[in-house]
Fold:
Amino acid sequence: MLDVYGTKLPSRLLLGTAQYPSPAILADAVKASCASVVTVSLRREMAGGRGGEKFWSLIQSLRLRVLPNTAGCHSVKEAVTTAKMAREVFGTNWIKLEVIGNHDTLQPDVFGLVEAARILREDGFAVFPYTTDDLVVAERLLAAGCQVLMPWCAPIGSALGPVNVTALRSMRGHFPEVPLIVDAGLGRPSHAARVMELGFDAVLLNTAVAKAADPVGMARAFGKAVDAGREAYRSGLLEPRDVAVPSTPTIGRAVFQ
Amino acid sequence: MRVLVKGAGVAGLTAAFELAARGAAVTVVETRHSLGDNASWMAGGMLAPWCERESAEQPVLDLGRDAAGWWDAVLPGQVTRAGTLVVATPRDVGELDRFASRTSGYRRVDEDEIALLEPDLAGRFRRGLFFPGEAHLDPRRAMAALQDKLAERGVEFRFGVDARHMAGFEREIDCTGMAAGDDELRGVRGEMLILHAPDISLSRPVRLLHPRFPLYLAPRANHHFMAGATMIESLSAGPITARSMMELLNAAYSVHPAFGEAAIVETGVGVRPAFPDNLPRVESQGRTVAINGLYRHGFLLAPAMARQAADLVFDSDKPAEHADETHCQRRSA
Structure:
């Protein structure tokens, strides 16, 4: 079972809770996906007073572990403040740390990310940093105390799937013991299966499910794909060959050609 | 039959009309002192069931299809039937295909057709979707006109009065939205701006698709435009945030740079009442029929909900078909 910050997760799918047609469909999709963790974004409007408690109670009713995020934060200070607010509101020290460097591409600001990760780790947070596939940044994040890394495989919401498989492979190779969760950029169940086949520990996605014509069906499909990819990885994949090899043994032939 | 309608938002006013039209003696009671300051007052007024289908379920299209006809028949002159134009910036042009794959009732338009539909947008967008069957109205004018029409027909209005002080009615229609205090209801905050941009004319609502900050601009009289609207899971009705305002203004500016010169005439915040499935309900309990959960579809779905409520009041044996259907669908899903 996947172990992150001392917590064992029964499923290797983490699902975001934004952009669904309705909370009812969100709840059905989460159930269909068998996800073990849901991410929630904290809007300032939700904190304090009578904010979004109805939505929050719906999330709670799913009885899953909640991973709040710092979506939309563009500076270290903003991300740290939001993380602290999220700890109060959601009652967890888990935080998916996003420090956005570019408003349009939502590319992580890796410099701010490392700094914010260090601050939050020192403050006792279990930090899940949303990062790129850069190995040096990954090392810095681990040095800052992170025990999990969440590399993108393509920009958030792009649905492109793994655009740089080589980089993902080398990341897996460099950090064989660190839980690696592919976050952002997955568009299809086959993308999820692909990164799981590469040996990634889990995937986190949102838009591909929330914006599907049938989010519940798509959530179920992603759940199966994650399981399939994981099982394939554990079962030892056949490496590609350059020549054809018949799968039917040629019994009864006198001479092999 | 004497009927008390609680709440003078779009649900209450349309219900009052349907009931009065079937011969009920209707009184509308509203705790506020005038028509304004509720979710309906902040609405966009788009009668756009085909576009809404992009994110809403099928009942929104089924129930909203006849809304433009209802408003046009009840308030001649208030409805503009000019369709909806959906555009995207070149970078987000893929969003148009995504939107198209979720909707129906449109035709694809190119740069020339966009220029014919909206001359002020000539040369600004290469591709778009045009939904010819859609319509729009100005919610505030429509509500005021409907109030006048109801008053003409003998409907009594009591503003600034608590409904608990009203007695002697055979039936009650609860149209109080969030104030109804239904356990399943939640608030979805929406922020909007009213811009006055004298250099721009639009004949129909324009929707700008964007992966994160979709915007609509609904034209109002005299070069006024409503720019909206955010969707935030929150009951807070506090003032619009700087971020939301920047997002809305950025999007408006990318529809046309002349919006950079617009005067911001008003900022508004409304809290939409919504059930977990984001679909409206008409429910009967004892002497009371409740209409609620109109979410972002007040003007679009209120006529159908009002008819169902009136059906329940006048023919209690007949169930409210659509409301029941939507319930069952969700429960069996």
Notes: The longest strand of chain B covers residues 263-274. The two ends of chain B are 39 Å apart (CA to CA).
